[in-house]
Amino acid sequence: MSLVSKIDMWVKAVHKHLDFGVLRLVAMLAGLGLTALVVWDPTLFAQAIGGFGPVISPALIWSICTTMIYGVGFVPRNWYWQVFFTPYISLPVLTYIYWLRFY
Question: What residue ranges are annotated as transmembrane (predicted)?
């Protein structure tokens, strides 16, 4: 068995733990909610999170996109895209941005 297929099997096994519908629904609603907050009043949102900086803006866009990919149930074919769009990282980033906005 090649190294790439071992990595692929390991990534699929790790992501299998998050493969249930309720978490997908919650993630999808959280992503949609954050999108609505940004679209509704971007200046107020930017003020609440401390501004759209070079770190927070890409993290916001990436976490929303990744959460939507995860929420609809799409699984990328290649293991490296599965790692890039992993909900293990995007959900904490999304939660942190919510925390910045509301606290």
Answer: 20-40, 52-73, 79-100
